[in-house]
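Standup, Tuesday
Yesterday: got the pipeline producing structure tokens again.
Today: sanity-check two examples.
Blockers: none.

Example 1:
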Amino acid sequence: MISSTQQIATDIAWLQDNCEMTNRQCDDVINACEDLGGISAEYFCEEFVFICEDEDGNEDLDALNRVHDDDYLSLDWFNTVFQKEDYID
């Protein structure tokens, strides 16, 4: 198991090398990761952070709305499909 100090150093190095983040940006990501239970910055960024680009490689904010769906796996949907009483022995 990696110590929290080692994890922070690893996270900072990864964020600076792979995401070209400033120290302040690294702090923001690391704080978010700690709030989420101490996950690694690499995992957080690989799973939850992305930039939509058009065919020319420019940032495409309109595309974000096409790939982000607020209702995808919403709690309301989940609770409707998986009723609590269906899973009580």
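Example 2:
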Amino acid sequence: MKLGTFMMPLHPPGRQPWETYIEDREAILLADQLGYKEALVGEHVTDLAENVTSCLMFLASVAHDTKNIVLGSGTLNMPNSHPAAVAAQVAMLDHILEGRFLMGISPGGLMAKQRTRAASTSTDVLATTTFRSSDACRSMIR
């Protein structure tokens, strides 16, 4: 069996971000030492409890201290960035990691924000955003 981890990462909102970044970094380094195959990290721009606002920047901070583990963006929130900028950053991180990178994307947004809208509107917004994100990714690979 191959083990992997997905980190939201979730912390009490009152914690200092620098403290939680150190803890999350140590968790990935430990996972690498224990033989985990993958570590994926999510991102949120507006959530105090999940304070990694750029999973690519965070992953770059552990790149040279890991040896075998494949690192990945659990969620790159595509609507928050220009597709060309995302493509350039992902390519650079993939080179830094010497091919140990997995790219995961999402339409962005927190479910709590989606729940405040009418159910049909939420579905329409999510479907439209997902479609736009998929288009952006397809254009990056071409």
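Quick observation on example 2: The domain at 4-141 is CATH 3.20.20.30 (TIM Barrel). The first helix runs from residue 17 to 33.
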